[in-house]
Design brief:
It contains 2 helices and 2 strands, in the order E-E-H-H. The chain has 79 residues and is of the alpha+beta class.
Length: 79
């Protein structure tokens, strides 16, 4: 079994409209899991974006590109 993650929207009829077509070239049965963000969820960053960001950060850390801890908080408005 393979997993694919894509974004999409539900229309007024409850049908799923994918943002881009799946690159699957076979007619197969598929299991679909829908995760809908609720009104209180203000973070719309996709899992794919988060994974890509973490991968880049790991590569930079391995290459010695590090930011000193005291500079990490610059420009961040923490409450």
């Amino acid at each position: 079994m393979k997993a694919f993650e894509v974004m999409g929207k539900l229309d007024e009829k409850g049908q799923l409209l994918l943002d881009k077509p799946l690159e699957i070239h076979a007619l197969k049965q598929a299991r679909v899991i829908i995760i809908v963000s609720d009104e209180t969820d203000s973070d719309d960053t996709s899992v794919m974006e988060i994974k890509a960001s973490l991968k880049t950060a790991l590569q930079e850390a391995k290459a010695g590109k590090r930011i000193p801890l005291e500079k990490m908080w610059e420009g961040i408005d923490a409450e």
